[in-house]
Amino acid sequence: MENKRPSVFVVFFALCCLVLTSGCETSGVFDNLGAIQVGNFRLSESQVGAIKKSAQAMGKAFTDITPEQEYYVGRAVGATLLGRYQPRTEANSVQYLNLVGDSLAAVSDMPETYGGYHFVLLEDEGINAFAAPGGLIFISRGMLRCCQDEDTLAAVLAHEIAHVQLKHGLQAIKTSRLTTAFSIMATEGAKQAGGPELSQLTALFEDSIHDVTATLVNSGYSRAFEREADAVALVILGRAGYDQHSLVTLLREMKLRLNPQGLDFAKTHPDPAERIAELEPQLGEATVPPGKPQRQQRFKSIFGSI
After folding, report:
1. What kind and span of H or E run contains 132?
2. Number of CB atoms found within 10 A of residue 180's CB
3. pLDDT at position 294
4. What is the pTM of this model?
5. SS3 138
6. Rounded Cα distance, 245 and 154, in Å
7. Is residue 208 very low, low, confident or very high in pLDDT (cuts 50, 70, 90)?
8. What ranges do the domains of the chain cover?
9. I want to staple 117 with a disulfide (CB 3.0 to 4.6 A). Which of 82, 135, 167, 172 is the partner?
10. pLDDT tens digits, residue range 272-289?
C-alpha cells in the first residue's frame, strides 16, 4: 500500500488512538501506530484549505467517512477492546483464523479495506464476536467452543464480515459528533495544534469511539442490522464454498449454551431462535459441500483442544 502523509482528519483520529491506548498493553496486535509527531504538529495553509473544502463537500455524516478514516476508527475501537480482553497469540491459531477469515472476506462485496482484514481470538469465556470498522474482527474462546467445525467457524466470521461490509459499526457514531467535528475543522482556529479546538476534536473522536464500542459490547446492533448481516453471511458462505446451513447449526448450539441472563451474546443479540426462524426459509435442502470432511479435520487439528 502506498505510504501517504495522513490527512488532518486521520491525524486527529490518531490522537484519539493515543489517548485510548496509553497504558494499554496490546501484545503486538496493533504495532506501528504511525509516525505522527503530535507534540509539535501544526497545520499548513494548504491543509486548512483542504479541510474547508472537505467539510463543505462531505455531508457531515458517517457515510462520508473515507476508508482511511474508517481504519483509524477501527484501530481505536480495537485498542479499547484489547484493553478489556486478552488476545491469543499462539501462531497456529492466529494463522488459521486469519486464513479462514481472509478467504471469506475475499468473496464478500468488500474484499479489501484500507488496513486489511485482521481476525483476533480473545481469551474470554463469554460467547461473543465483534466487528470493528475497517475490518478488525474479534471472536472469543467461548464463541469458538460453539463451533463444531470449520464451516461453523466460517459462519461466525462471515456474519462479522457482513457487519463491516454494511458499515454497521460506523452507524453507531452519533451524527451530531461528526457534524460538530467537521465544523471545527473548517475554522481558522484549527490551524494551531494544542489549542481548545484540538482538545474539543480529540474529545469528539474519543466519544465517537465510545459510541461504537458501547454498541458492540453493551447494547448490540438492532434486529434489522442482525437480520441484514445474517442474509449477507449466507451469500458469503455460499460464494466461499462453505455450508450455508452452518449458520443455523451455529445458532442452535449457541441457543443451548447461552445464559439468558448473561452479559455476552445473549445480552447484545436477538434470540438465536428468532434468527433461525428468519434464516430457514432462505435455505435450500441441506447437502454436504465438497471438502467439508477435510475442513473439519483441519479445524480439529488446530482448535480441537481449545
Report:
1. strand 129-132
2. 15
3. 94
4. 0.72
5. strand
6. 11
7. low
8. 8-172+216-303
9. 135
10. 888 999 999 989 887 888
